[in-house]
Amino acid sequence: MRFRPEHADLRAGVRRLLAHHGGGAAWRLLAEQVGAPGLAVPERLGGAGYGPLEVHAVMEELGHALAEVPFLSSSVLATQALLGCEASPARDAWLGRLAEGTATATLAWEEDDEGDARNGDAPRCSATDTSGRWSLSGRKPRVLDAATADLLVVAAATGDGPALFAVAPDAEGVELAERVPLDLTRPRADVAFDCAEALPLTFQGSRVLADALTAANAALTAEQVGGAARCVEMTVGYAGTREQFGRPIGSFQAVKHRLADMYVDLESARSLSYAAAFSLESGNADAWADVSAAKSACSEAYREIAGEAIQLHGGIGVTWEHEAQRHFKRAHGSASLFGAPEWHRRRLASVIGLEDGAVDQHPGGALSP
């Protein structure tokens, strides 16, 4: 289970680029110089034709730099969903634009907002066919990068089961309300549909969603490992220069123990994340189990490491200007994305006979007709 030399080159190139550029400039250069948006898109559709390992390498560097680019939402989540749909001129054209980096997309798949769900008054997103013209009505909460996306890939219930539809964000009947998330580096928005025109992409929504979310979770573990690695790096560096009682705090045994624990947590998470990536790369039918195990472990490791980074930095670690507090917010935000650690553990327990209760296939709530 080893990455190849070309993966190291890819990591190094992305790290150098992100060290000098951020935001829109970074995204443009990632597309033009690295071809990152099209890594997982087949060559016949304008991409590079690579797979999970290359995506993993890029995501780890994006996490290390806390890069504010739509790679996860567009190049992983939406791209994998589109690749799972049946070939069509519209689908292929969108995949070509996404691979070039000239457009971005996002997948709107979560169902009820937790607060509204308790009251039972949150509308589910449903699709209606009227003489061959499909329209969507309902609401999708917490959609990643929805405010800047050029395409919404929306999961909706139909009479024949869950399906995926392409919707233009500026179409009549579509309304976006931006949220103020805990992690400001990962924008989200609530999207409401009121008889919005939609183009059907596939009526095998359950299968496509399951595969797309498995790929997204695997990629997210790489980002979490990259972020955790950065927390360890800057904490070790700080402990070596910050002095108390005339000596660096890193020389105290208690601090050494905490730094060692951070490193052990990081390497354990990294091993599980890499195992998930290689499992996907090999086409293992049970790769989802490896991914769920990695997502649970990496989420908790990143949260623990980011928390320790703030503790060992002292008061400076929670200031707005410091990188530690941004990693802390990213760690907690990413832990709940695509299923909290507890959800993934229940999912694994239910299939190995440790728990009788059933778990929804999709962590955001199962779609039903």
TrEMBL record:
Domain of life from the UniProt record: Bacteria
Pfam families: Acyl-CoA_dh_1, Acyl-CoA_dh_N
Signal peptide span: none
Coiled coil segments of this chain: none
Keyword check for Flavoprotein: yes
Statement: the UniProt record of this protein carries the keyword Oxidoreductase: yes
Gene3D superfamilies in UniProt: Acyl-CoA dehydrogenase/oxidase, N-terminal domain, Butyryl-CoA Dehydrogenase, subunit A, domain 2, Butyryl-CoA Dehydrogenase, subunit A, domain 3
UniProt domain Acyl-CoA dehydrogenase/oxidase C-terminal: residue ranges: 204-351
The entry's keywords: FAD, Flavoprotein, Oxidoreductase
Disordered: annotated segments: 111-133
Sequence ranges assigned to domain Acyl-CoA dehydrogenase/oxidase N-terminal in this UniProt record: 26-101
Cofactor: FAD
Family note: Belongs to the acyl-CoA dehydrogenase family.
Protein name, as recorded: Acyl-CoA dehydrogenase family protein
Organism of this sequence: Nocardiopsis suaedae
UniProt lineage: Bacteria, Bacillati, Actinomycetota, Actinomycetes, Streptosporangiales
